[in-house]
Amino acid sequence: MNTLRSSLALVALVALATGVADTAQAAATLSTGPVRVSADPAHGDLLRCGAVNVGTKEIEVVITATLDDTFQSPPLFVTPGQTATIFNPNSGPSSANGFCRFTIKGGKKNVRASACALDQNNNCRAAAGAD
C-alpha cells in the first residue's frame, strides 16, 4: 500500500512540475536598456515602445513603458509583419531615463522590440534594442 501511495505521489509531483514548467515557458520577457527622454518638447518628450512580429503566427504581447510613470498595455494581438506600439509622455520637469518591457505569450524568438525617445516631429533621437 505504501508503494502505491508513493507511486501516486510521484505521478502527482511530476504532473505538477510539468504544468509549472509549461506555465513558465508560456511567457517570455524582453527588456530594453535606458533611453534619455527630454522634458523639453523641442528635443523629445515621448517614450515609444514597439514590438514587431517577425514570425509566421499571431503573437500576444503586453508592453510596459516606464518613464516618470508606468503605462501598461492590455494584451495586444499582433499578426505577422505588424507592430504593436505604446507611448509614455515625459510628464516630469526634467529629462528622465525610460525603458520598455515586453511580455510575450509563447516565446520571444519571433519578436524584435525597442525603445525610442521621440522629438516633436516623431524623429527618434535615442534608441535601445530589447533582449
Describe the structure.
With 131 residues, the chain is an alpha+beta fold. It has a single domain, classed as Immunoglobulin-like, CATH 2.60.40. The protein has one helix and ten strands. It has one helix spanning 2-26, and strands at 27-31, 35-37, 46-53, 59-66, 70-72, 76-78, 83-89, 96-105, 111-118, 124-129. Strands 1, 2, 4, 5, 6 and 8 form a six-stranded antiparallel beta sheet that branches. It has a four-stranded antiparallel beta sheet with strand order 7-3-9-10, with no helix packed on it. It is elongated and about 40 Å long. The termini are far apart.
Mean pLDDT: 83
Counted beta strands? 10
In terms of DSSP E residues, the strand content is over 45%
Order of helices and strands, N to C? HEEEEEEEEEE
Number of helices: 1
The whole-angstrom Rg is 20 Å
C-alpha geometry: elongated
Question: What would the CATH topology be?
Answer: Immunoglobulin-like
* Through-space gap between termini: 51 Å
What is the CATH C-level name? Mainly Beta
Percent in helix: 10-25%
Protein structure class:
alpha+beta
Structurally, the number of domains stands at 1
The low-confidence runs, each spanning 5 or more residues with pLDDT under 50, are 1-24
The major β-sheet equals: 6 strands, antiparallel
User: What would CATH call the architecture?
Assistant: Sandwich
